[in-house]
Amino acid sequence: MSRTALLVPCYNASRFLPRLRAQVDRLAPAFDEVLLVDDASRDDTAAQAETLGFRILRLPHNLGPGGARNVLAHASTATWIHFHDVDDELAPDYLARVRPLSAEVDAVFHTVDFIRETDRAPIIRWQLSADGLARDPARTLLCSPLPTMASFLRRDLFLRLGGFDEEHRCFEDGDLHFRVAASGARIAWLPEVLEWSLRHDHGAGANQHYCFRCRLAFLERYALSQPASLHGAIAEQAERAAVMLLRHGDKPAARQAIALAARLGRTLPVTANPFLKLAAAFLPATTTLRLQDRMRSD
Questions:
Q1: Tell me, what CATH number does 177's domain have?
Q2: Omega cis (within 30) before 29
Q3: 8 A C-beta contact, residue 96 and residue 102
């Protein structure tokens, strides 16, 4: 049977390691390989991991989440890999649930719940449309970017695609999963929650402004690299990025997103509202987009 690896990047993660140890010990069946990397932490992450019996690599300089995960994938000897964040929770029967689907595919995607760390209140459920995935995988993963922990991947596919983007520290996971779909890889979808991401007020994901600047950078890249059949979806995502950037007061980046949508044939705002149509004739797109956003939220 193909070997499997649980790959865990760590940065200042000492306090989470005992919980990770307990999780790993509960896994049934267990991963063949559990490999951690210390991404130049400032605390005693590496020493604590070794005390708990983990195999851990040490990086001399901080590479960020994408770079650390790439190091792990290159160091692994497994056929199948799953990336797990050290502060998250994994279903004890994870492998029992994904392995039956993996024989004929290159990737298994599954549902992930984001929950609040303090009280475990639900925040968002990350899932895909099974029909959309079957009909148009690339468009589905473009419009519904999945987080890192939502996949079980063939390691050779991951390496062939170049792994995670190391320049951007947010949406790099959605980018990887989109590239998996766009590559024509065979994908299975498991609509079950197999991982719980505990959200807190630190980390790249907490900075939504930064995240949507990263998202825009990826969309600019897709506009140049992807076929015209995806341009409409890219433009729709550029519109969403523009709205989010405006919420954070970043007009220059929002204008860049609006310009990207326009280059792809989508003039913003897209609306049937006669007031907004009239306003769009006289006001900048940034202003009418903000008006539209406020009207939708009222």
A1: 3.90.550.10
A2: yes
A3: no
